[in-house]
């Protein structure tokens, strides 16, 4: 059986209006713009208002993505939402988004892989579409991490922000894709022995609350540089490509120093690395689609460009997607 090609039709994003800069942290936190900016590259983040839930942000990102894809919601038959901060324990945030968009065919579900969530969701959508189990999918990364933060813990609360990004992908017969555009490969990994490096203090079946974030930053940093570098090299090898073939590297945006270290190890020009962290901070599952959305708005992405997406997050989970725009 000939598998379908899965092409990217459009991307969208949405950020809450409230900008919270490094200067807005209270004196009692004992931090500074200089410390945060020098160690991470983060200058500001967006913080959701109480009514701005994960689905609220995601719905708006989906509307943008549908507009950029020039398709209507009734054409969508698969919705996958990557989030670690769902509106409710159940139902899935994806079905809330489905209903708000007026979609009632196909299926929707959530994926939980924290900061690697978008890579996981896109991989699942790719598999559904390749096999012909759906035709057009909305793949979403959306998180409201401000609700998971201990705002008195300076080692974590300065790192995160809220946002949502979405991508529309479509299955087409591979014979209609002579330029071999779309998703070329996907790769997912996890290793639960590292789960305590990045976790929450609670959960539904333990404390009955969502908990707050605990992170061993140095250890996560080390794993991120090592695993994201190897992940890109492995993905290139799978496709018989080299670093020189990459037009854009779109890493999960956790820390500018991680992204620079990965770029240096790969020997890729830093101009080819899309970085949106300065104004967004780490929006967890949303960073990659938001970075693509920002790049699209600047007209950086040209048809035929080779793009590598990569992430590492809680779990630990990590993975990559190679695609031709
Ligand atoms: N302001 C001022 N000082 C601070 C702050 C702050 N916000 N935070 C920590 N410090 C202090 C520490 O207390 C420590 O002080 P000490 O030496 O007196 O003990 C000192 O600064 C150095 O702290 P380190 O943690 O060693 O700082 P480091 O250079 O490692 O930077 C950071 C910390 C930015 C968190 C870095 O380790 C990092 O980015 N790690 C990776 C995070 C990441 O990738 N997360 C991705 C996944 S997120 C997800 O999946 C949900």
Provide key terms for this protein.
four-stranded mixed β-sheet; single chain; alpha/beta; 325 residues; binds acetyl coenzyme *A; 2 domains
Q: How does the SSE layout of this entry go?
A:
Elements: E1 5-14, E2 19-21, H1 33-40, E3 44-46, H2 54-69, E4 78-82, H3 93-101, E5 107-111, H4 117-130, E6 136-144, H5 154-157, E7 162-172, E8 182-190, E9 198-200, E10 213-215, H6 217-238, E11 248-251, H7 256-266, H8 277-280, H9 287-297, E12 306-313, E13 317-324
Parallel strand pairs: 4-5, 4-6, 11-12
Antiparallel strand pairs: 1-7, 2-3, 6-7, 8-13, 9-10, 12-13
Helix pairs in contact: 2-3, 6-7
The structure holds acetyl coenzyme *A (ACO).
Acetyl coenzyme *A binds at residues 31, 35-36, 39-40, 114-115, 154-155, 158, 198, 217-218, 220-221, 224, 254-255, 258, 282, 284, 313-314.
In summary, what is this structure?
Helix content is 30%, strand content 25%. The protein is α/β, with parallel strands linked by helices and 325 residues long. The strands form 4 sheets. It has a 5-stranded mixed beta sheet, sandwiched between helices. Strands 8-13-12-11 form a 4-stranded mixed beta sheet, with helices on both faces. Strands 2-3 form a two-stranded antiparallel ribbon.
């Amino acid at each position: 059986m000939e598998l379908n090609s899965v092409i990217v039709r459009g991307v969208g994003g949405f950020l809450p209006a409230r900008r919270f800069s490094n200067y807005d942290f209270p004196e009692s936190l004992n931090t500074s713009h200089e410390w945060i900016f020098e160690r991470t590259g983060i200058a500001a983040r967006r913080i959701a208002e109480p009514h701005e839930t994960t689905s609220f942000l995601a719905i708006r990102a989906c509307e943008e993505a549908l507009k950029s894809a020039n398709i209507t919601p009734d054409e969508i038959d698969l919705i996958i939402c990557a989030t670690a901060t769902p509106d409710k324990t159940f139902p899935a945030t994806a079905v809330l988004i489905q209903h708000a968009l007026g979609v009632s065919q196909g299926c929707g579900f959530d994926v939980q892989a924290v900061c690697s969530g978008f890579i996981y969701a896109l991989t699942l959508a790719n598999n559904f579409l390749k096999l012909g189990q759906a035709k057009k999918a909305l793949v979403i990364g959306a998180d409201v991490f401000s609700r998971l933060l201990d705002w008195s813990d300076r080692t974590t609360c300065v790192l995160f922000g809220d946002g949502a990004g979405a991508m529309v992908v479509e299955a087409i017969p591979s014979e209609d894709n002579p330029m071999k555009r779309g998703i070329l490969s996907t790769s997912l990994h996890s290793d639960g022995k590292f789960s305590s490096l990045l976790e929450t203090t609670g959960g539904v079946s333990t404390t009955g609350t969502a908990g707050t974030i605990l992170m061993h930053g140095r250890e996560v940093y080390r794993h991120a540089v090592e695993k994201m570098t190897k992940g890109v090299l492995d993905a290139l090898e799978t496709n018989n490509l080299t670093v020189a073939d990459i037009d854009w590297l779109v890493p999960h945006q956790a820390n500018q120093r991680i992204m620079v270290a990965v770029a240096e190890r790969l020997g890729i020009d830093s101009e080819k690395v899309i970085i949106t962290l300065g104004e967004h901070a780490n929006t967890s599952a949303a960073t990659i689609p938001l970075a693509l959305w920002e790049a699209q708005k600047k007209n950086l992405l040209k048809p035929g460009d080779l793009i590598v997406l990569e992430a590492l997050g809680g779990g630990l989970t990590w993975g990559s997607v190679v695609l031709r725009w």
